[in-house]
Amino acid sequence: MVGLFSKNPEIKQISQKKKELRKLVKQKQYDTALKIGSEILQKIPEENDVLFIVGGIYYLKNKYKTAISYFEKSLEIATFDIEVLLLKANSHYHLGEHKQAIQCCQKILEIDPKNKAVSELLFKIESSK
């Protein structure tokens, strides 16, 4: 919210770009959203919401390696973000990197021991062995 009332035009512009990014994602215009997300990250590389959104788009596009790189940057900022950890775990799972997926799941379970999505993912991993 700080950006909305700022006198700095660049911060206001970034705030507008983030709104546009969210709108494009809702409309499933992922390619355009990726361009805007990249523009924002060039100016503010540690913009966690945008890192999550861009990583999520790559996840939806089945570009798991690229998605993981964004999730890792996001986790440097928000270490205990369960949503990011879960998407990262699923990305590793889809790449057949079960050890890394399990590590993400274990971290989530430390934060949220009753997380149902993690239990389901761990079951899928065990079933695929």
What count of structural domains? Answer: 1
At CATH level 3, the topology is: Serine Threonine Protein Phosphatase 5, Tetratricopeptide repeat
Largest pleated sheet: none
How much β-strand is present in the residues? under 5%
Radius of gyration: 16 Å
Q: Give the full name of the CATH homologous superfamily.
A: Tetratricopeptide repeat domain
Which architecture name does CATH use? Alpha Horseshoe
> Helicity level, as a percent range?
over 70%
Structural notes for this entry:
The chain has 129 residues and is mainly alpha-helical. It is built from seven helices and no strands. It has helices spanning 9-26, 30-43, 48-60, 64-77, 82-94, 98-111, 116-127. α2 runs antiparallel to α3 (48-60), α4 (64-77) runs antiparallel to α5 (82-94) and α6 (98-111) runs antiparallel to α7. The longest helix has 18 residues, at 9-26. The model has no long low-confidence stretch (mean pLDDT 92).
